[in-house]
Fold this sequence. Notes:
Shape: globular
Number of strands: 19
Strand order of the largest sheet: 1-3-2-4-5
Largest sheet: 5 strands, mixed
Distance between the termini: 65 Å
Bound molecules: 2-acetamido-2-deoxy-1-O-phosphono-alpha-D-glucopyranose, magnesium ion
Number of domains: 4
Amino acid sequence: MSVNLRSVFAFAKEYHQKKESQKDIQYGTAGFRSHADNLDYVMYRMGVLAALRSRAQASQAIGVMITASHNPEHDNGVKLIDPHGEMLEQRWEKLATDLVNVSDADLEAQVAKICADEAIDNNEPARVFVGMDTRYHSPQLSRAVVNGILALKGTVTEFGIVTTPMLHYFVTCTNTQGAYGVPTEEGYVGKLIAAFRTLRGESNERGNYRNQLYYDGANGVGSLKMLGFVKKLNDTLNVRVFNSNGKINFKCGADFVKTNHHVPEGLPEEALAGGRCCSVDGDADRVVYYFTDADTGVFHLLDGDRIATLLAGYLKDLIEQCGVQLAMGLVQTAYANGASTDYIVNRMKIPVSCTRTGVKHLHHRALDYDIGVYFEANGHGTIIYSDRAKQTIRTAASDESRTEAQRETAARLLHFIDLTNETVGDAISDMLLVETVLHAKGWNLRDWQASYTDLPNVLEKVYLADRNVITVTDADRVVEAPEGLQDSINEIVAKFPNGRSFVRPSGTEDIVRVYAEADTRANAVQLSFEVANLVYDRAGGVGSRPVKMET
Ligand SMILES: CC(=O)N[C@H]1[C@@H](OP(=O)(O)O)O[C@H](CO)[C@@H](O)[C@@H]1O
Ligand SMILES: [Mg+2]
């Protein structure tokens, strides 16, 4: 097989043209994201790049996921998945950005340059997996990706509509020759359900834990797939799925619930009486829990920080019980609530590190531990176990010198590992892990919430003429430019007890995010208001000034 690079250009010129007026875009926190109307040429070129990436990685399978996750319906996006199921290597993000931003006329030369720089032999096979979310424009964009792969004579496997974490899983299973599981939807569902059933044991209820969950599917692929799970779960877990047929992420889903601190629309009336609820996002890689107090009507959120503490605490107990020595650590971002960090370090005695925003950074850091638990506050995260950890636990499960209880605990840990989608944050897998721990402890959400009290916090958006005038360092916590801005933020923060605030340009939207937390809601709101206005003044704010949020 020989590849004529001219075909890449000819194909693009004929079917996937880039407009002259198209502005440059960047491979951001989670790939390219934009209005769906602007993405056809981006998709085509990402198909081309995925084929090149596969060849650069000894013809291993590469994933291309078409989704804009929690963004509104009119947006779409694309992200690439590397051979081990992780996000695309950062060096290649730059290649992706450059490839997307050249003109059609320069496309052939740009592809040739990547081939030369990366020593890619286009006679080698290229293997690419393609998946998409439920947005109505995803199938059309998927055609563009497939055409890009075919222009480079790659082999395409189309998985159709899948969650982002499912596609990561398929890539990993394939490149491990099945060691991680069977790379099909049945293989994925079967692995999770088998582990979940075993961990649940005989009884579906225990202590304060009730076998009823209300699940907001964000009108996306997460609801579609959950409905499939529900059939197979039988009564092991009663899940009532809602928001399965409307506009994606519209007044629902994990991002809406976390950002607005409010129940989603569509929540069944009965759930308001203290029912255990969760929301996933548009591509089902995030999950948050919540309940409404039946007596007071107050809404309580259990976010990604909370999920991290629940899972890490449970794992720590199991590890101690089975008497193995494994180093465990937790990874957060600057958006983690200060109270959660304090609880993990001082009460749970688990080391915590803080990385830049974006799961690729957290995942990378979590690899430093035998058992690395990482979660963003918004509910995106997972647990990864080193080969050493798996081997140690496997040995303990059959070690006759240990007590029977220790062996059983080790066996339980192995099922817990099987229930985890280690490749990336996975709303469904994470939800089943949370359900497993709550069931084991006999907890309702109030019991879970009692472990620590969140500091009141605010997350706000500020619109600037160019968000990139703000640059940050130290895991997003310190502003480098414009000069002097950080000093001014520090002066404001110092006025508030337990105050903390930072700003950074978003990697997924054309905005700057301001985060603030303090001892009271009123103080968090005031702190955020002052910092947002400071940023608006010093960094070129556009549109109306930031207003004060409700307290
Ligand atoms: C504050 C926040 O939640 N930021 C999100 C958001 O990134 P931004 O770069 O902040 O837009 O989307 C990312 C992708 O889903 C996610 O990883 C990240 O945590
Ligand atoms: Mg998502």
